[in-house]
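User: My collaborator sent over this chain with a note saying "see what the structure looks like." That's all I know about it. Can you take a look?
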Amino acid sequence: MHCIPAHKVVGDIGAPAANIEACVRGLAVEFPQLGLSFGYIGNVGRGYDDRGWRVFTTVRRDNRSQSWGDWPTDQLPAMYEAIATGRLRLFCESLAASL
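Assistant: Without extra context I'll predict from the sequence alone. Here is the result:
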């Protein structure tokens, strides 16, 4: 997988999000059947941020979309660490094997 080493993640939201996006793009090439994308559900405004960041798939099970994660914005560096250490890859491998 083509991920930037975790020690290069910096504190602002842009860098972790960009690093995660790069990892997801790499996995999307390896698992095209999953239709991977990175984004969030929620809202952000003055004084609040209730976004939950996820890796989405186009796979549905029991009429529900399958996704990985639900990380709050302030935990994006931790989400990247989880991806860089293989947790998202394991999810992708398991989901692809079940198709």
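A starting point for your reply to your collaborator: Residues 6-97 form one domain.
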